[in-house]
Amino acid sequence: MMEYSLDSGASVSDNSDSIEMQETEDMSDDPFCNPEKPVRVTFEEITSAAYKIRSGIKNTPCEKSHISQLTGMNIYLKKDFLQHTGSFKERGARYALLMLNEQERRNGIIAASLGNHAQAVCYHGYKLGIPVTVVMPLIAPIMKIQKCREYKANVIIEGKDMDEAKKTAYKLSKEKNLTYINGYDHPHIIAGQGTIGLEILEQVSDIDAVVVPTGGGGLLAGVSVAVKMLNPQIKIIGVESERCASYSKAMSNGSPLFTPIEGTLADGLAVPEVGYNAWETSKNLLDKLVVVKEEMIALAILRFIENEKCVVEGAGACGLAAILAGQLDEFKGKRVVLILSGGNIDTTILGRCLERGLAADGRLVKCRVTVSDRPGGISELCKIFGSIGVSIKDIIHERAWVASDVFSVEVIVVCETRDYTHSVELRNLLRSKYKKFEFENFPIESTLVATNKDLFSDDLDP
Ligand SMILES: Cc1ncc(COP(=O)(O)O)c(C=O)c1O
């Protein structure tokens, strides 16, 4: 392990001539992210970053949330999705750009990103007059790609995932003499992300825990150093999606390990291997790591929209997902800060998230009922739904593959209910009227910690 210092200053462009290109690009010679010599970012670097970026970054609000009563905790939301490009990534990006020397600024930089780091370097590069190239994988959300183009950056769409995009970016950095800036592991990026921790501690007193969405680990690393230095009693909780659990893989392995990732609502966290500097910096400061299920992320996005009037992307909603799933129950009655790290979500994906969230919440249900095919059979079924105020969204009749008598029809109904209890009422009513019916994925009550009515009770703390 090597302590990193701000003037250690090796640059990708300095050694580009001496490096042989390979079929599969070897990134172990990135001078800032060397697995053999991981660096631990220090508190002093974070305070230095805070000073340098202060004129270009918003000090976003960290406010008590309406969700407090719903969760039984005093929840504070650090709203970093309110940064200009919609994510905290601007902090590290601006700091890394400001730390380039004159030659590097002229040559320009290159980065690989699923979107938020790309948008951040494109925007701040544009503001600071530094040429920026970004390589985004094919799976990057369209809205994020579009935004990068608006900031006049050179946008290359290549690679099936982040791993491939990174390799392309690194290869180009050497060919074109550009400085490669890793979005979660470059020490300047980690230091920049840590500034969010400094702000949180100035904004909220007596914090018990800070919950940090975790992908490559840069945010977690920076925030843990800042928070633990100022108050070692505060617990640091990392959260990642079950579909890209690379930090938990690193924990069980004892060091970062490649983890295949699957499509996730938390696309910002889809990094297959935790950064080595991020790991070295955070591994002894982290108190707990939570892996959340996709449906809870969808539910958290829904809760933010309905209760906070905030559009938060999947990655940013993971902290609340963990709480809704009961994975942080030890903090009931305590003061917990959730970092809402980003708000960039494609509108089409948002629509799908909300539907999944409603399904996870027991408010959108699908059932199959076999009814009489005689005149009035289907209309009677519809009346039953209407009699208890359930609204039918979609209805399909199936005759050809019904196994029972020819005078029966199977009706598939998708409907909206008020809440889980209302769905149970519907199920009981159908049970009393029909012999053959079933629900698809009827929600399990234990996953639903509270219903909306609880929101109208008094806050926990005055
Ligand atoms: C919105 C959002 N939250 C959290 C993260 C995780 O940050 P890190 O990769 O530094 O762990 C990212 C990463 O891109 C992100 O975009």
From TrEMBL:
<feature type="compositionally biased region" description="Acidic residues">
    <location>
        <begin position="20"/>
        <end position="29"/>
    </location>
</feature>
<keyword id="KW-0456">Lyase</keyword>
<dbReference type="InterPro" id="IPR044561">
    <property type="entry name" value="ACT_ThrD-II-like"/>
</dbReference>
<dbReference type="GO" id="GO:0004794">
    <property type="term" value="F:threonine deaminase activity"/>
</dbReference>
<feature type="region of interest" description="Disordered">
    <location>
        <begin position="1"/>
        <end position="34"/>
    </location>
</feature>
<dbReference type="GO" id="GO:0006565">
    <property type="term" value="P:L-serine catabolic process"/>
</dbReference>
<feature type="domain" description="Tryptophan synthase beta chain-like PALP">
    <location>
        <begin position="54"/>
        <end position="342"/>
    </location>
</feature>
<protein>
    <recommendedName>
        <fullName>L-serine deaminase</fullName>
    </recommendedName>
</protein>
<keyword id="KW-0663">Pyridoxal phosphate</keyword>
<dbReference type="InterPro" id="IPR050147">
    <property type="entry name" value="Ser/Thr_Dehydratase"/>
</dbReference>
<dbReference type="GO" id="GO:0006567">
    <property type="term" value="P:L-threonine catabolic process"/>
</dbReference>
<dbReference type="InterPro" id="IPR001926">
    <property type="entry name" value="TrpB-like_PALP"/>
</dbReference>
<dbReference type="InterPro" id="IPR036052">
    <property type="entry name" value="TrpB-like_PALP_sf"/>
</dbReference>
<comment type="similarity">
    <text>Belongs to the serine/threonine dehydratase family.</text>
</comment>
<feature type="compositionally biased region" description="Polar residues">
    <location>
        <begin position="8"/>
        <end position="19"/>
    </location>
</feature>
<dbReference type="Pfam" id="PF00291">
    <property type="entry name" value="PALP"/>
</dbReference>
<dbReference type="InterPro" id="IPR005789">
    <property type="entry name" value="Thr_deHydtase_catblc"/>
</dbReference>
<dbReference type="GO" id="GO:0009097">
    <property type="term" value="P:isoleucine biosynthetic process"/>
</dbReference>
<dbReference type="GO" id="GO:0003941">
    <property type="term" value="F:L-serine ammonia-lyase activity"/>
</dbReference>
